[in-house]
């Protein structure tokens, strides 16, 4: 079995993929997560009324920091020099939609960085609001789109 672009080497053992021969290209990924909560909880988060402080600001920073640490969290994930990470959080009824965008110019994609940013931002919101609503759920963690790289572009059909 060839070891190129697979996490299994010729002996069937897990290893980090060698991306050394791949071209550096501009790569971008967008991921999403949804935090479902009671209406009062969503209102308190959006209104900055939590006792722990500005949950939106803390969650954005947590998502950005998590994207930068993805290779330390996900086994066999390459460390990437990110050129941009954004985390946006908006209210959608009884939910908060978290959208994370990660960009780089490099030899491997940033899908995992975007997914990690969205997930950690959602977990941070949960942590900051759990005193109000322990029944919150995090759902819909998914890649929304990616561009760049050998595998081409992807856009999730809604």
Summarize the model shown.
The protein has a domain at 39-147: Alpha-Beta Plaits (2-Layer Sandwich).
Describe this structure in words.
The structure is a single chain. This protein is α+β, with helices and mostly antiparallel strands and 158 residues long. It has a domain at 39-147: Molybdopterin cofactor biosynthesis C (MoaC) domain (Alpha-Beta Plaits, 2-Layer Sandwich), CATH 3.30.70. It is 28% helix and 28% strand. The chain has four helices and five strands; from the N terminus they run βαααββαββ. The chain has helices spanning 39-46, 55-68, 70-73, 111-129; strands at residues 25-36, 84-91, 95-106, 137-147, 154-155. Strands 2-3-1-4-5 form a five-stranded antiparallel sheet. α2 packs antiparallel against α4 (111-129). It is elongated, with a radius of gyration of 17 Å. The mean pLDDT is 90. Homohexamer; trimer of dimers. Belongs to the MoaC family. Keywords: Lyase, Molybdenum cofactor biosynthesis. Substrate binds at residues 76-78, 112-113.
């Amino acid at each position: 079995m060839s070891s190129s672009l697979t996490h299994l080497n010729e002996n069937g053992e897990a290893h980090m993929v060698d991306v050394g021969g791949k071209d550096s290209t501009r790569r971008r990924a967008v991921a999403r997560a949804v935090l479902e909560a009671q209406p009062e909880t969503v209102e308190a988060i959006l209104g900055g009324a939590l006792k722990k402080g500005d949950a939106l600001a803390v969650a954005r920073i947590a998502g950005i920091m998590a994207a930068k640490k993805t290779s330390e969290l996900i086994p066999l994930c390459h460390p990437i020099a990110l050129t941009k990470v954004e985390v946006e959080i908006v209210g959608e009824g009884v939910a908060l939609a978290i959208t994370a965008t990660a960009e780089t110019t490099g030899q491997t994609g940033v899908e995992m960085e975007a997914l990690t940013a969205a997930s950690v931002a959602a977990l941070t919101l949960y942590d900051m609001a759990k005193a109000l609503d322990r029944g919150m759920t995090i759902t819909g963690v998914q890649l929304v789109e990616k561009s760049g790289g050998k595998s081409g572009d992807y856009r999730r059909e809604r």
